[in-house]
Amino acid sequence: MNRPFELNQEQIDHLFKFVKSKYVRHIDLQYEVVDHLASSIEEEMMSQDIGFEEALNRVYGRFPITGFAKFLEGKEGQLTKYWYKQCFKYFIEFFTIPKILITILMGTSFYWIFRFQGVFASLICFLILSIGVLIYFYYDRSKMKKIKELQENYLFLQIYYGITLAPTFMYSSVPWVLMDDFHKTIGVGADHNKALILTCFMTFYLLYTYICVFRLKDKLKEELQTKYAHLNIPSIV
Amino acid sequence: MNGKIFRGSLDTIVIKLLTDNKEMYGYEITQKVKELTGGTMNITEGALYPALHKLEGKGILETQTRSIGNRMRKYYSLTKKGKKESVNYMKEMQSFLDQMQFLLNGKNNLA
Q1: Are A143 and A227 members of one domain?
Q2: Interface check A102 vs B, CB under 8 A
Q3: In A147, A165, A196, B28, which residue has its Cα 20 to 30 A from A202's Cα atom?
Q4: What ipTM was predicted for this assembly?
Q5: CB distance A39–B72 less than 8 Å?
């Protein structure tokens, strides 16, 4: 749909400020809202022969009383669903024959350690979790400040980091609670059920970390160069 | 036009338009519906974008953003999955319309 009349740069800039004042603070969302408003305003100005400000008021008046809230909510839900789907997809893809065997071997080793090795199990647990968290810091520590800034500006990055970073740290706190019991049974090892729970948890934790650190990060890099190329986000992932 | 009935059909309307037009942007969809229905149906922004985002989340739509003059514009199009699903959406809608017609006609007959 080509339009014979287009808003000028100053008016477009005004629209960006306007949508920001209406709580659309993420740049990736502002682009879509601004284009919609601009197209509606152009139409209104042409058909009704009115000025920019009046047209803006009329167009914004057509939005629900909550303004752009529904728009934001919908986008947040879509992005959350999208990244969880990607995560699940990689999780399923991971289970090819050699990797299934590695996972079973890893799980069996965990069980053996937790069930029969007592204190040693606590140490291994500590070591693996620390390595997991260290990997994250090794990759992202220097970039954390920049990442925080990007998260504030771009909704898709906020959702991405929310899914990949936060749960990892959350999960890493769970075994500490379970390990509390280990210290009461030093040298004995956990009972079958507890050892099984810890085994499942540790195996899942390592797989999830692997998917977030390597696979999802690659996916994000790819999207920054294609889907979000227009945002010119510096490659920091 | 009853808004509730309309909102329930919005996904199908969007999919049908994108089947016919390959790619469209948000505002264009609202205008096209208005044009095709002679102004009797109006898609509000508050209903359209959540529907577009929902379909994108389901993997039925994909987007591409391009520069148009002094601003960026996001175009929506059907994914491969969307193209396959569109047949089901149309069938379901047609079946719903047939049943409604049957029910309404039946009532008329009784009256």
Answers
A1: yes
A2: no
A3: A147
A4: 0.80
A5: no
